[in-house]
Write a structure and sequence with these properties.
Structural class: alpha/beta
Largest sheet: 11 strands, mixed
Number of helices: 19
Radius of gyration: 23 Å
Order of helices and strands: EEHHHHHEHEHEHHEHHHHHHHEHHEEEHE
Shape: globular
Keywords: Methyltransferase, S-adenosyl-L-methionine, Transferase
Number of domains: 3
CATH superfamily of the largest domain: Vaccinia Virus protein VP39
GO molecular function, one term: rRNA (cytosine-N4-)-methyltransferase activity
CATH architecture of the largest domain: 3-Layer(aba) Sandwich
Distance between the termini: 32 Å
Family: Belongs to the methyltransferase superfamily. RsmH family.
Number of strands: 11
Bound molecules: S-adenosylmethionine
Strand content: 5-15%
CATH class of the largest domain: Alpha Beta
CATH topology of the largest domain: Rossmann fold
Helix content: 40-55%
Length: 442
């Protein structure tokens, strides 16, 4: 595994449990839900809150839509207190980690976190916060399919470990020795990567305590025009997360069969106008084809009527780009397979947390988690019913897991996904569509 690298070991003597880090953990403690929340209305038997009314007139429609969005979001908004200081400390100019307090809260239970795998290292924002909050961690593995992202994340981890080692002798919070590794690998290979580090992990004898998958792209990937991910910057029609992969967006646009092209626009882009766009793309092939993201954007701008304006073409372009990116990187199939592999890699009591950014991903996570805990096919209809085996956890234990679903192999801790708080949304627009789901192995 040429790209795998063991970071220098972090030797420290066993010491008393965390003290210096208590502050970080304390600020992530969730507060109770407000009395108007749907969850608490259910618990007290009161009726659900009525939908908010928005003003009619100029801009009224937009206000109404926002009010409805907010009303729906209230059902899933994180109950964790927002820790602006933690965000400031762990954010990077290249990428701001999403749902950071909630990820930390997820891995505070059920026991000490001895081993942790970050499948999507990126700029290492989540990883560093986890290392800081878990001085007891003995094994850390960070993976990213994009070697340039991995380089950045690895440099941040090395700097963090170096500074921790420098002050290690004085810090009572630090215990034991941390073995830290980074691997330039797709997370679909999680079993092989774990096996290369420790054979007992490969054969599932021991398993790891925590796994995080933070899907999608980092800001550093979107902002680099040469990757072809951004609708707003001209660049090559590439969109590969892994530069060694052979398929590019250009290949799909210029040579995939028309029906396949239509299928990805419909299924991966959820684009209602997919047939028209499919036909326009095929017409363009006859006049020279596509050579840059700008070529594709120009076509979409021409297709979108004047009345749709800038927002109209941007939304359509975002859906078309999403369809291409998912197809280029085979994202949905890899996600589903990797959820199974990751669950296999967990120790008993271990947790897998997944942050998704669009409904296609979230649907897969939701359905696969149910399959994993029940050990078979999940019934989509059934799991939307309220009479599932739910355990109300709205107590001192873990209030943000307001409902869970118990199966014979595990527990889904988030029957409803957790979405960012309003404070986080104000700070980082990119987090608006994020959803966190967590499963625990039993
Ligand atoms: C949203 S970013 C992660 C940001 C990170 N959590 C942080 O705090 O900085 C997603 C990362 O996952 C990587 N990625 C996407 N798909 C992947 C896959 N199948 N296997 C491994 N890494 C993947 C991307 O290259 C990107 O760097």
């Amino acid at each position: 595994m040429a790209a795998a690298r063991r970071l220098f070991p972090f030797h420290l003597h066993a010491r008393a449990p965390a003290r210096a880090l208590a502050a970080v953990v304390a600020v992530a403690t969730p507060h109770r839900r407000g009395k108007h929340d749907v969850a608490s209305c259910k618990a007290t038997g009161k009726t659900k809150p009525s939908r908010p009314k928005a003003k009619a007139g100029k801009g009224g429609e937009r206000l109404q839509r926002r009010a409805l969005e907010e009303h729906l979001k209230r059902r899933t908004r994180s109950g964790a207190a927002f820790d602006a200081e933690l965000y400031g400390r762990r954010s990077h100019e290249l990428h701001v980690p999403v749902l950071l307090g909630e990820v930390l809260a997820t891995f505070r239970r059920p026991r000490q976190l001895r081993s942790f795998v970050d499948c999507t290292l990126g700029a290492a924002g989540h990883s560093l916060a986890m290392m800081e909050a878990h001085p007891e961690m003995e094994l850390y593995i960070g993976m990213d399919v994009d070697p340039s992202a991995l380089e950045i994340g690895r440099a941040h981890i090395e700097a963090f470990l170096a500074s921790r080692e420098a002050k290690g002798g004085k810090d009572d919070a630090l215990q034991g020795t941390l073995r830290a590794y980074t691997h330039a690998k797709n997370f679909k290979y999680i079993k092989q990567v774990l096996g290369s580090v420790d054979e007992s992990l490969a054969v599932g004898l021991s398993g790891v305590d925590g796994i995080l998958i933070d899907l999608g792209m980092s800001s550093m990937q979107v902002n680099r025009s040469n990757r072809g991910f951004s609708v707003l910057q001209d660049g090559p029609l590439d969109m590969r997360m892994d530069p060694k992969a052979t398929l590019r967006a250009e290949d799909i646009l210029n040579s995939w069969p028309e029906l396949e092209l239509g299928r990805i626009l419909r299924d991966y882009g959820e684009e209602s106008n997919w047939q028209f766009i499919q036909k326009q793309i095929v017409k363009t092939r006859a006049t020279g084809g596509f050579h840059s993201t700008g070529d594709l954007v120009k076509l979409i701008q021409r297709m979108c009527t004047i009345s749709k304006g800038r927002q109209g073409w941007i939304k359509t372009a975002t859906r078309v780009f999403q369809a291409l990116r998912i197809a280029v990187n085979d994202e949905l199939r890899i996600l589903e397979d990797s959820l199974h592999s990751s669950f296999d890699c967990l120790a008993t009591g271990g947790r897998l947390a997944v942050i998704s950014f669009h409904s296609l991903e979230d649907r897969i996570v939701k359905k696969t988690f149910l399959e994993l805990i029940h050990g078979g096919e999940a019934d989509d209809e059934e799991e939307d019913e309220d009479d599932l085996a739910l355990t109300d956890m709205d107590g001192e234990d873990e209030p943000w897991f307001n409902q869970r679903v118990q199966g014979r192999n595990g527990i889904v801790l988030t029957k409803r996904p957790i979405t960012p708080s309003q404070e986080e949304e104000k700070l980082n627009q990119r987090c608006r569509s994020a959803k966190l789901r967590v499963i625990q192995k039993t």
